[in-house]
């Protein structure tokens, strides 16, 4: 059963699991706080631990609150768009032809039919993002399958509001957030590895952390970088 520790204006959701150590996390974008404790931990002990980390919690929340937030895109010429962690300027062309997207050194050119709505432009760009991810994702999965000793039966790309990725370990499926196309490619690889390790250990247990650390030692730095990059206009949680 989940319980709540209230420290002034900070609410901390407490969960107990079969682990050895307490894990305290502050989640983007709004600074939600969770504490996962060993099964037999008393609530007053968990509370004392949280109090000892109060300054750290406030520091993390402050970073999130001041973090840059990507404004909604309207798909007009000279608008800034992110791709693989770099900024590009958008050029919009109106032609009576099949919609398309082209990329050169520092510019993304979006071609749509005259009168195309913002929604139509967004869908054309999103489909292009999916194609870029489809070009890169299979090779990264193939790279890590022998390293981890697992098999990904299939992968899916979709808009996800609450996660960068997910894994169905029973079916051998992983899902990736199409927003990852805006982040550096090494962060896409980190998310893929993160989800593939779930094929070995479905929960974020100590065994999972040990496996992830063994195979991807810099995962903490990658996670921190992913969370420090500009957030989209939507709300994201880990």
Describe this structure in words.
This protein is of the alpha/beta class. It has a 4-stranded mixed beta sheet with strand order 1-2-4-3, covered by helices on one side. A 4-stranded mixed beta sheet has the order 5-6-8-7, covered by helices on one side. Helix 3 crosses helix 4. The chain is globular and about 70 Å long. The protein starts with a strand and ends in a 10-residue tail after the last helix.
**Sheet with most strands:** 4 strands, mixed
Number of helices: 6
Low-confidence stretches: 233-238
Strand order of the largest sheet: 1-2-4-3
Number of strands: 11
Helix content: 25-40%
Give the overall pLDDT as a whole number.
88
**What is the N-to-C order of secondary-structure elements (H for helix, E for strand)?**
EEEEHHEEEEHEEEHHH
Net shape: globular
Instruction: Tell me the span between the first and last alpha carbons.
Output: 21 Å
Query: Radius of gyration in whole Å, from Cα?
Result: 21 Å
Structural class: alpha/beta
- β-strand amount: 25-35%
Reconstruct the topology from this structure:
Elements: E1 3-7, E2 10-17, E3 23-27, E4 32-38, H1 43-52, H2 54-65, E5 80-83, E6 86-94, E7 100-103, E8 107-112, H3 118-148, E9 154-158, E10 165-168, E11 173-177, H4 185-197, H5 206-215, H6 219-228
Parallel strand pairs: 2-4, 6-8, 9-11
Antiparallel strand pairs: 1-2, 3-4, 5-6, 7-8, 10-11
Helix pairs in contact: 3-4, 4-6
């Amino acid at each position: 059963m989940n319980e709540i520790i209230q420290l002034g204006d900070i609410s901390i959701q407490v969960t107990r699991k079969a682990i050895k150590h307490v894990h305290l996390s502050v989640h983007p974008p709004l600074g939600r706080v969770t504490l996962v404790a060993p099964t037999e931990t008393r609530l007053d002990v968990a509370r004392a631990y949280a109090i000892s980390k109060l300054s750290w919690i406030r520091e993390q929340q402050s970073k999130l609150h001041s973090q840059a937030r990507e404004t909604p895109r309207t798909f007009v010429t000279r608008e800034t768009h992110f791709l693989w962690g770099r900024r590009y300027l958008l050029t919009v062309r109106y032609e009576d032809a099949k919609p398309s997207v082209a990329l050169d050194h520092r510019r993304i050119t979006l071609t749509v039919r005259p009168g195309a709505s913002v929604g139509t432009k967004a869908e054309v760009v999103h489909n292009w993002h999916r194609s870029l991810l489809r070009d890169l994702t299979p090779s990264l999965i193939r790279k890590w399958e022998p390293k981890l000793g697992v098999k990904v039966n299939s992968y899916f790309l979709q808009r996800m509001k609450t996660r960068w990725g997910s894994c169905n370990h029973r079916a051998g499926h992983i899902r990736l957030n199409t927003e990852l196309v805006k982040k550096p490619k090494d962060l896409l690889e980190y998310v893929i590895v993160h989800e593939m390790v779930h094929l070995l250990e479905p929960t974020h247990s100590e065994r999972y952390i040990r496996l992830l650390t063994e195979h991807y030692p810099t995962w903490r730095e990658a996670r921190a970088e992913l969370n420090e990059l500009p957030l989209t206009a939507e709300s994201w949680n880990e």
